[in-house]
Amino acid sequence: MNAFEYRDGELCCEDVHVADIAHRFGTPVWIYSKAKLLDALNSVRTAFAELDPVICYSVKANSNLSLLKILNEAGSSFDVVSGGELYRVKRAGADTKRVVFAGVGKTDAEIRQALEDDILMFNVESEGELDAISAVAKSLGRVAPVAMRLNPDIDGKTHAKTTTGVKGNKFGMDIERHNELAAKVLADPHLELRGIHMHIGSPIMTTDPYLQAARKAVAVVRDLRERGHKTNWINLGGGFGLSYRGDEAPPASEYAKVIVPLIKEVGCRLALEPGRSIVGNSCVLISQVIYTKREGGKLFVIQDAAMNDLVRPAMYDSFHRIWPVASKVAAPTDYEAEAIPGCETTDIVGPICESSDYLAQKRAFPPVNRGDLLCTFSAGAYGMAMSSNYNSRPKAAEVLVDGATVSLIRERETYEDLVRHELIG
Ligand code: LLP
């Protein structure tokens, strides 16, 4: 399903003209489609239906309370990586019994809170963390449910900054350490080994790394059971691909095809932690052209969304489709744009004082003028969630569209918000 479509030369989100939202709430503005968000969740749910999986939406991808509430009401569970994210899912009304807690640096205070909230399990990243969880559980007179995060040494072929499943990065543990710690859990009355956890990277655009990961997980579960554990959960993390250009990402059903048969072999419950694939294509970032400028043989479109709003192009060389909101030609993929008559090679940049402040470089782009609205597509995942106030730029507003209904789900920050927590000493 595509919630963002050109109708009569104007981009619409569901039944609303995107330009109307921009005029009402200003720019830059993030616009979400509720239908697309739910559609993405349902695609994962349907693909894995045979296993009735626990789909723990990865809150780090986008933690807006309204989106969490929608996902919660649609039956999603949650993957959190901080006390702050745990707080958010509770504020959104989630049942914490369906929450998994990941991350390499959980503090005692975070562990205590999660135990008091009776979460589904901790994804444990190190021996130090396992000891800390045990000590906090003991002090509360509880048994902590854990799954050790195995580093399976599988190359998910992602950007160097988002690969997690190969030897030598900070995540997880190798199989020898995993087995040592599993023995430790068995001897500890305050720990219970519920399962095994892996996350191999983000985004992973082929299914083969999941096939390899699921094979490893199944072998580890068999081994653990032989050693006397009642291990019954396999959590394969997140990382499903997103189509940023056209339809290059495999659908959830393709991932399911390789994962489901293996999990069935050992009769485990399956947990997944998708973030990007749920929220990524449910949102666009709308900006307005401030100036155009020709300099040094290049054409620059300077518009009002910047790296403080969407840092992904600067940080990971990420590709996002960008196109005018008013256009007779629907937004093409990057390849097609080359062929559209009238397009010129353009850098689309923001107002921030850094050369890395761009949304796109060397992009075939049609002529635009001061005041024109631009749309950056596939902006829902790691967009607003990674935004900052760099250059003292207030964070943009977020707006949700449901059919013809438009709701503001985060107010645009003000200058007063920028200094709210500062004290003049
Ligand atoms: N589970 C764990 C343990 C993770 O580390 C992550 C993402 C996920 C689940 C969710 O992965 P997803 O389904 O969203 O791919 N900021 C980067 C992505 C960083 C991903 C970090 N971990 C970006 O903008 O591409």
Structure overview:
There is one protein chain. The protein is an alpha/beta fold and 425 residues long. Helices cover 30% and strands 24% of the residues. The strands form three sheets. Strands 4, 13, 14, 15, 16, 17, 18, 19 and 20 form a nine-stranded mixed beta sheet that branches. Strands 5-6-7-8-9-10-11-12 form an eight-stranded parallel beta barrel, surrounded by five helices. Strands 1-2-3 form a three-stranded antiparallel beta sheet. The chain starts with a strand and ends in a 6-residue tail after the last helix. Ligand LLP is lined by residues 58, 61, 79, 102, 162, 164, 199, 202-203, 237-240, 273-277, 312, 316, 381-382.
> What proportion of the residues form beta strands (DSSP E)?
15-25%
| Major sheet size, sense and barrel closure | 9 strands, mixed
Number of domains: 2
Number of helices: 13
CATH H level, superfamily name of the largest domain: Alanine racemase
CATH class of the largest domain: Alpha Beta
Summarize the structure.
With 425 residues, this protein is an alpha/beta fold.
